[in-house]
Design a protein that fits this description.
Length: 350
């Protein structure tokens, strides 16, 4: 109830401004989105019953509608919807939210990843792919319970579950935010805490500064969600990230510590180096994760991966890329699985 009262008061405070606000500009609506096509060839360890095809493809196409207006007191009101143009899921809405942006910060409500993902973004720079496009992890068959998708931000726990968030404006390089999800699952209406996890909170802060040759940033966050009454699906986690730029170079890294109620604790870290010159981008990144396979036992699952990427910008919003990757996995039985390959693709953003 305290969180509910706080969220209600925050929305009222944002609306109760010193003077009445009326739409000074007409509402503008823009259409955008992206289409991404990837082709890969991979060689990886197979189970006795498998016969994996070495070649495969991925496709991702989304369409977004963005409507906004600026009131006569300078406040921006925005509504955003993004749909999966190609989907086999029962729901094709990817993101949908409304937000109010003023000199006091940003208030957002709807289906959207929390402030940790909004502030940290990609924990390491990548020339062609991104954390959002975890196609390499999909090309290599998972052999344990470790996930490298959104592995370093709290989006991995909530996805785009319904929530309300507040983000401060950047003041002297410092910015902070908080997000509350009634449940970290995709759910609307009353939340039965006996049947699903509830009350997920994401608190994140970042400091950005500059020096004579570039910029630097430091980010940290904390996440907590409650378990169902009879299950162990609550999670506590914290993460940290840092990055520095120098000319066309960028070096960044991140760390995540996850403590679920199941006691299958996990630690993951990543580091990446990026270089850009004109339309050409190059990057190399490495990530590693280790998870306790059984509560109270000294058994661990393990996964790591190295990726080398290049991209060439053909024009505004259009780029082609090539990536090479190799990864190792260890399952709960101690068996090791490895695999590697090459991925190419075309990305069009509009």
């Amino acid at each position: 109830m305290k969180v509910l009262r706080f969220g209600t008061c925050a929305l009222i405070a944002a609306a109760a401004l010193p003077r009445a606000a009326y739409a000074a500009d007409p509402i503008t609506v823009s259409l955008g989105g992206f289409v991404r096509q990837y082709f890969f060839v991979a060689d990886q360890t197979e189970a006795p019953t498998e016969n994996l095809n070495a070649a495969g493809m991925f496709t991702d196409a989304r369409v977004a509608v963005d409507g906004r207006t600026v009131l006569d007191n300078g406040i921006t009101v925005r509504a955003y919807l993004r749909f999966k143009a190609k989907t086999r899921e029962t729901s094709n809405l990817d993101e949908g939210f409304v937000e109010i942006v003023s000199g006091l910060g940003r208030i957002r409500a709807g289906e959207r990843a929390g402030v940790n993902y909004a502030i940290m973004g990609d924990p390491v720079p990548q020339a062609f792919l991104s954390t959002y496009e975890e196609v390499v992890g999909d090309a290599l068959v998972a052999r344990n319970g470790i996930t490298l998708r959104d592995a370093f931000t709290f989006k991995r726990f909530t996805g785009n579950a319904l929530g309300v968030s507040y983000q401060t404006p950047e003041i002297a390089g410092f910015q902070a935010g908080v997000t509350y999800h009634p449940t970290p699952r995709a759910w609307e209406g009353p939340v039965n805490r006996a049947l699903m996890p509830s009350n997920a909170v994401d608190v994140t802060a970042q400091y950005q500064g500059d020096y004579s040759a570039g910029t630097y940033r430091l980010t940290g966050g904390y996440f907590h969600s409650n378990s169902r009454t009879l299950e162990n699906d609550g999670i506590e986690a914290w993460n940290a990230g840092a990055g520095i730029t120098y000319g066309g170079w960028e070096l960044a890294g991140a760390y995540m510590n996850v403590k679920p109620a199941t006691r299958l604790d996990e630690r993951a870290w990543t580091v990446g180096l990026f270089y850009a010159i004109g339309p050409i981008q190059l990057s190399a990144d490495y990530r590693e994760a280790k998870r306790r396979a059984a509560a109270g036992l000294n058994l661990y699952e393990y996964a790591d991966r190295i990726t080398l990427q290049s991209a060439y910008k053909l024009g505004p919003g259009i780029s082609v890329g090539l990536a090479g990757f190799y990864g190792d996995q260890t399952d709960v039985a101690g068996l090791q699985w490895d695999g590697g390959g090459v991925l190419s693709g075309l990305k069009v953003d509009f």
